[in-house]
Amino acid sequence: MIRRRLLSLAVLELVNIPLFAFALFGVLGAPASPANLAGFGVFALLLAEGSAYWWLKLRQTAGGGRTPAGMAVFRVLRWINVALFALTGALVAVALVEGEQWTRAAVGVALGLFAILEHVNYFHVQLMHDIRADLRRLLRTRRPRRSHLARDLARTARRP
User: Fold this and answer.
1) Which regions span the lipid bilayer (predicted)?
2) Which of 23, 35, 50, 53 could cysteine-pair with 108, CB 3.0–4.6 Å?
3) Number of neighbours of residue 66 by Cβ within 10 angstroms
4) For the whole model, what pTM was predicted?
5) Cα dihedral angle (125, 77, 89, 13), rounded to 10 degrees?
6) CA–CA separation, 15 vs 9, rounded Å?
7) For 22-77, what is each residue's pLDDT tens digit?
C-alpha cells in the first residue's frame, strides 16, 4: 500500500506539470506573459522537486534505508526556492510597474503563491490531507504534522 501511494505521488506530481500548462495556457488561454511564465516556472520546479523526493522515498522504502538518498540536495533546494520566490515576485512587480495589465499577470501570481504553498507542504508542514488517515490525524490533533521531507532532512542533519 505504501509503495503504491509513493508511486502515485511521484507520478502525479510530474503529470501535473504539463497538465497545468495545457489547462492554463491552452484551454483557458492565459497569456504567456513574463509574469505568468515566471509563476509557472517556479510552480513546475516545485512539482518536479516533489516528484523527485517521492521517487527517492520509494527507492528508500524498497532498499530499507534510514533516509532517502539526496537529502543534501534538498537541503540546498530549500534555500534556492526562497530565492526563486523572491525573484519571481520581483519579476511580477516589475512587469506590473512597467504597465503589464493585472489580468495578464494574475495566473503567474496565483501559480507563484501555489508554489510557495507547495514549498511549505514539502519542506515544512503537511498541508495536503487527501487520505482518511491524514484527515483523522489532523482532526484528532488539530495541528499540521511535519512533512515527510522535513522529517528526513532533520534525520540527516543529526547524522555524524
Assistant:
1) 7-31, 37-56, 76-96, 102-123
2) 35
3) 9
4) 0.87
5) -60
6) 10
7) 999 999 999 999 999 999 999 999 999 999 999 999 999 988 888 899 999 999 99
Question: CA angle at residue 78 from 76 to 79, to 5 degrees?
Answer: 75
What is the biggest distance separating any 2 CA atoms in the chain, rounded to whole angstroms?
Answer: 55
- Are the C-beta atoms of residues 39 and 108 closer than 8 Å to each other? yes
Q: Look up residue 141 and give its three cell numbers.
A: 490533533
User: Between helices 148-157 and 34-63, what is the axis angle to 10°?
Assistant: 60
For 89-139, what is each residue's pLDDT tens digit?
998 888 888 887 887 889 999 999 999 999 999 999 886 656 666 656 656
Angle among Cα 18, 27, 102 to the nearest 5 degrees reads 95
Using alpha carbons, select from 57, 47, 109 the residue that is nearest to residue 77.
Answer: 47
**Which of helix, strand or coil describes residue 45?**
helix
Cα dihedral 141, 7, 74, 122 sign: negative
Backbone angles phi, psi at 65, to 5 degrees: -70, 165
Q: Whole-angstrom Cα distance, residue 65 to residue 113?
A: 34
- With beta carbons less than 8 A apart as the criterion, state whether 78 and 123 touch: yes
SS3 125: strand
